[in-house]
């Protein structure tokens, strides 16, 4: 196999590693992103050889390092990294021995461990250039990591199940509003979002039935019946061309995006009433990250949002034909960040 191997410690950065796995799988496909090899080792196999084989067949090994990565203790109170049979240590050591590209990814504000704090077979890890991913800049930081992985030889998926960097929707037009929000503007956006959420939550969530279109334009003159001409030949020898029936155009299907959607930074909860929508974004720690309102027209979703850090912006999505995926881009007017977003349910 080739691709990316994610190394992490479960009692240190399990949620961040899982989130990174989901995000990278969208770019490269799940057949090129691997983790938790230790949980799939069959009885009777030598785990050190299985790990060596799995790690050596990947292009890149990512070491997710949180605040407890270096100091995590086992049930005997001994530092886990001191154990030669520690799976985290074995995976990293195997990659370093085979000179595989090893990228430390720092999360939770962690810093790179110093060489003197590492066992002998991991000391080279301290010399590797690290990549940092923070909660507030998750999308941007992960995009930078994706670019590095592509340069390292990991091939982007091309089968439509993921969004790859060179197949993203075109960027939205440059905003005509100022890059900075005043305190009053931020407060106004928050208040508007809350009020709209309250109003929409009280509206009946019914699906409107499209009205049938008329078979003829309203301005068309009425047709005058014409008396049939007397045939010059016997009636049974005349073959009349049947008049084709008027075909009504199919009514546009109504798309309901209400419910939960998984995104790169958490769970999006959408409420919809007619063409009006409201949403809330909860992070993997179940804290509210952002909320906003918008509209949906023929599968095109436009929203404005306000984040918990008092920044805000807008985003545009297109709902897939099966109604199970939304792809689009966002922009933050305050930070200037612009990037892709993929939501699935």
Give a brief rundown of this model.
The chain is α/β, with parallel strands linked by helices. It has helices at residues 10-28, 47-56, 87-97, 138-151, 183-201; strands spanning 4-7, 33-34, 60-65, 101-106, 131-132, 259-263, 266-273, 276-282, 288-297, 300-307, 312-319, 325-332, 338-344.
Main sheet: strands, sense, barrel:
8 strands, antiparallel
Task: List the secondary-structure elements in sequence, H or E.
Answer: EHEHEHEEHHEEEEEEEE
- What's the number of domains? 2
Number of strands: 13
* Mean pLDDT value: 76
Estimate the global geometry from the Cα principal axes.
Answer: elongated
- Helix/strand/pairing class, anyone? alpha/beta
Percentage of residues assigned to helices: 10-25%
Task: Classify the beta-strand content into a percent band.
Answer: 15-25%
CATH topology (fold) name of the largest domain: Rossmann fold
Tally the helices.
5
CATH evolutionary superfamily of the largest domain: Toll/interleukin-1 receptor homology (TIR) domain
Terminal CA distance reads: 28 Å
- Unreliable sequence segments: 159-192, 194-211, 213-224, 226-252
CATH architecture of the largest domain: 3-Layer(aba) Sandwich
Structure description:
The chain is α/β, with parallel strands linked by helices and 345 residues long. Helices cover 21% and strands 23% of the residues. It has 5 helices and 13 strands. The chain has helices at 10-28, 47-56, 87-97, 138-151, 183-201; strands at residues 4-7, 33-34, 60-65, 101-106, 131-132, 259-263, 266-273, 276-282, 288-297, 300-307, 312-319, 325-332, 338-344. The strands form 2 sheets. An 8-stranded antiparallel sheet has the order 6-7-8-9-10-11-12-13. The chain is elongated and about 60 Å long.
């Amino acid at each position: 196999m080739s691709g990316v191997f994610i190394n992490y410690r479960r009692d240190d950065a399990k949620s961040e590693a899982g989130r990174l796995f989901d995000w990278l799988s969208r770019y490269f496909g799940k057949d090129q992103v691997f983790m938790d090899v230790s949980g799939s080792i069959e009885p009777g196999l030598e785990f050190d050889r299985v790990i060596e084989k799995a790690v050596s067949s990947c292009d890149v090994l990512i070491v997710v390092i949180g605040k407890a990565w270096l100091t995590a203790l086992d049930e005997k109170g001994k530092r886990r990294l001191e154990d030669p049979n520690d799976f985290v240590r074995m995976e990293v050591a195997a990659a370093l021995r085979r000179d595989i590209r090893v990228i430390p990814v720092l999360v939770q504000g962690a810093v790179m461990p110093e060489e003197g704090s590492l066992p002998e077979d991991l000391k080279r890890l301290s010399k590797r250039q690290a990549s940092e991913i923070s909660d507030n800049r998750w999308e941007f930081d992960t995009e930078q990591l994706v670019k590095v992985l592509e340069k390292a030889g990991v091939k982007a998926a091309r089968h439509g199940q993921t969004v790859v960097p060179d197949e993203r929707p075109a960027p939205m037009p440059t905003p005509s509003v100022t890059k900075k929000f005043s305190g009053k503007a931020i407060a106004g956006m928050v208040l508007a979002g809350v009020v709209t959420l309250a109003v929409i939550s009280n509206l009946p969530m019914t699906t409107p039935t499209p009205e049938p279109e008329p078979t003829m334009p309203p301005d068309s003159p009425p047709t005058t019946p014409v008396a049939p001409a007397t045939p010059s030949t016997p009636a049974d020898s005349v073959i009349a061309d049947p008049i084709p029936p008027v075909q009504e155009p199919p009514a546009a299907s109504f798309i309901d995006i209400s419910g939960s959607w998984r995104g790169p930074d958490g769970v999006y909860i959408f409420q919809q009433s007619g063409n009006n929508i409201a949403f809330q974004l909860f992070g993997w720690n179940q804290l509210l990250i952002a909320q906003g309102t918008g509209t949906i027209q023929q599968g095109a979703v436009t929203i404005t949002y306000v984040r918990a850090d008092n920044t805000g912006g807008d985003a545009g999505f297109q709902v897939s034909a099966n109604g199970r995926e939304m792809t689009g881009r966002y922009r933050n007017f305050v930070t200037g960040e612009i990037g892709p977003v993929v939501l699935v349910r």
